[in-house]
Write a structure and sequence with these properties.
This protein is an alpha/beta fold. It folds into two domains: 264 residues, 3-Layer(aba) Sandwich (Aldehyde Dehydrogenase, Chain A, domain 1), CATH 3.40.605.10; 192 residues, Aldehyde Dehydrogenase, Chain A, domain 2, CATH 3.40.309.10. Helices cover 38% and strands 23% of the residues.
């Protein structure tokens, strides 16, 4: 093994060297350089983490809720203090811009703050006189050990869709982060350790699908949260359902932006759309990647202006001091494999007859020739059913379609296999209301390019974008991480 940093596992309150079947390189996608090693932990490591969490559960679940959230307050303060350090670590191993990483950290902290409201959120319900002389009550109790398997694109925020809510409700936790971005999670775990959580309440196991499968199938894991491709969501869901586990499985997306003819502030609108499409190099589940313009005139205006605005985005190393605070920066995609797939999809679009209005393929960043860069890419003359419209490309590739009416635009959205999010741009209240009610997506925006809800509201899609029933964040999280116990009671006079 070289002198490169090797990520460890965190089990029962201690950092431990993983038992493993080898290591993977941790790559800086901006430079192509290797910045560390992550172990491919064996299933036994997952089992040890689950056992530690199971042992910690009884005492932790009996800890008063105010005591549980006190640790979250401490963690929140630590992350506020070290926000910039985490953001830069995130950029180094994931490749998004520094402003995007800072925004991710703010949302991470907001999720902790939301979970700190658990003394109110976990309230039960009581009905006096539900029958003659009988009262009814519902209490929300912790269940046991929960696990999460999280993706590379939000290595700080995605785990915190789950961790604070699970801990605050009285459960214990095991996290398996993406093997592509483990350094951010390791740093966050150091702050979790400093916050002083009792041993075993939180555990971290690095690895690949071996660890993920071990967690999903472990008899002492009561629930699993997963974020990734829809195909993998179905596997995780099937594994959990077979053992009667709870599960959340948030999958793929193809988010649409609909532009109505009444829109007059086109310059502001276009910038709002392009930021949605190209932030994080298009590698986020809320990134918009399909634009539907209504009518011939609006289609031409949107296509021309969007292509021109897309050219203004700068492809660069996000940690290059010259560009570190550049808001309109497109960094690299996560890996050579991801880049190859994006390039294949661009070629597919050309073969399908779409017009490649902006080509971001042959881009080279001086000094960073080994980085995995794809510039903003735009297809026009796209029709529903083309592979570039059907497929989640997960990169800086946008397709522009034309519809003759709002009804046709809604039909395009509703016939798509993915239903994560969509937005409409209009000043017409009737059109906005119709869109909110009829567009079959889990998250709807009106004049908002990224309709990502704040942590006080639920987060999740519909149809093939969410293979589960309970969404993330907010009060929905309490439903996932607690069991409703119903009590019917009567007392006779002595």
């Amino acid at each position: 093994m070289s002198d490169l940093k090797v990520v460890g596992n965190y089990i029962s309150g201690k950092w431990v060297e993983a038992e493993h079947d080898g290591h993977l390189d941790i790559e800086n996608p901006s430079t192509g350089g290797i910045i560390g090693k992550v172990p491919l932990s064996i299933a036994g490591e997952a089992n040890r983490a689950v056992e530690a969490a199971r042992r910690a559960f009884p005492e932790w679940s009996r800890t008063p809720v105010a005591g549980r959230v006190s640790y979250l307050y401490a963690l929140r303060n630590l992350l506020m203090e070290h926000e910039e350090k985490v953001s830069r670590t995130l950029v180094e191993e994931m490749g998004k811009s520094l402003p995007d990483a800072r925004a991710e950290m703010k949302r991470t902290i907001q999720n902790i703050e939301a979970a700190c409201g658990m003394p109110i959120l976990q309230h039960g319900d009581k009905m006096i006189g539900s029958a003659a002389g009988i009262d009814g009550e519902v209490i929300h109790l912790p269940i046991g050990v929960f696990a999460a398997i999280t993706p590379f694109n939000f290595p700080a925020m995605a785990p915190f869709w789950f961790i604070p809510y699970a801990l605050a409700t009285g459960n214990t936790f095991v996290l398996k982060p993406s093997e592509q971005t483990p350094l951010t999670t390791e740093l966050l775990t150091e702050y979790i350790d400093q916050a002083g959580l009792p041993a075993g309440v939180f555990n971290l196991v690095n690895g690949d699908k071996t660890v993920a499968t071990a967690l999903a199938t472990h008899p002492d894991v009561n629930g699993v949260s997963f974020v990734g491709k829809t195909a993998t969501c179905r596997v995780v869901a099937a594994q959990c359902a077979a053992d009667n586990k709870r599960y959340q499985a948030m999958g793929s997306a193809k988010n649409h932006l609909v532009v109505m003819p009444d829109c007059s502030q086109l310059d502001e609108l276009i910038r709002n759309m392009s930021t949605s499409c190209f932030g994080c190099a298009g590698q986020r589940c809320m990134a918009s990647s399909a634009i539907v313009a209504i009518g011939d005139d609006m289609y031409k205006a949107v296509a021309d202006r969007f292509v021109n605005d897309s050219k203004k985005f700068l492809a660069a190393n996000p940690l290059d001091p010259e560009y570190a605070d550049e808001a309109m920066l497109t960094g690299p995609v996560i890996s050579a494999q991801a880049k190859d797939f994006i390039l294949e999809m661009i070629e597919t679009g050309i073969q399908e007859g779409a017009t490649l209005a902006l080509d971001g393929r042959d881009i080279t960043i001086p000094g960073y020739e080994k980085g995995h860069y794809v510039g903003p890419t735009v297809f026009t003359d796209v029709t529903p059913g083309m592979e570039i419209h059907k497929t989640e490309i997960f990169g800086p590739v946008v397709v522009i379609l034309k519809a003759q009416s709002l009804d046709e635009a809604i039909e395009i959205i509703n016939e798509h296999q993915y239903a994560n999010a969509c937005s409409i741009y209009t000043q017409n209240g009737y059109h906005a209301r119709k869109f909110k009610l009829e567009a079959e997506c889990g998250m709807i925006g009106v004049n908002v390019g990224i309709p990502a809800p704040v942590p006080f509201l639920p987060f999740g899609g519909m149809n093939n974008s969410m293979i589960c029933d309970i969404k993330m964040q907010g009060k929905a999280a309490i439903n996932f991480f607690t069991e409703d116990k119903v009590i019917v009671e009567r007392y006779w006079e002595e």
